[in-house]
């Protein structure tokens, strides 16, 4: 996925209300804010985190916000619950989240949940990230979202039939 998108690809999970980055890979052309594997951060300002939040009930999201707040990363970060919930509703309806300069200026990402529920993971997502100039609305809608969702489906099938 990283090679095809010429981007950074990641997989992450939710751990006690935070986004944990489990794995990261990139193509030779990739540029992002270089988050390290193992990093924990608030969920509201990353595409992975918002894809993870979208799998929760509204009450569970409110509990996460009550616990960690909505700290500001950039001018684009959701710092109000109502704004975040509107974004989460869009994620739920279109099937993927968008991070648009919310954690780091100049970085855009999209993420989608992966339906794997077992003893290790109950809530995971995958993402593709890169510079905002390469993540246009048209490319996200017509290329990257499809690549992302196809990759999630392959992961789900491999987990179901090959593990």
TrEMBL record:
Residue ranges crossing the lipid bilayer per the database entry: none
Protein name: IclR family transcriptional regulator
Any one GO MF annotation of this record: DNA-binding transcription factor activity
A family per Pfam: IclR_C
Coiled coil: none
Lineage of source species: Archaea, Methanobacteriati, Methanobacteriota, Stenosarchaea group, Halobacteria
GO biological process, one term: negative regulation of DNA-templated transcription
Domain IclR-ED, first and last residues per copy: 1-161
InterPro entries for this protein: GAF-like_dom_sf, HTH_MetabolicPath_Reg, Tscrpt_reg_IclR_C
Top-level division of the source organism's lineage: Archaea
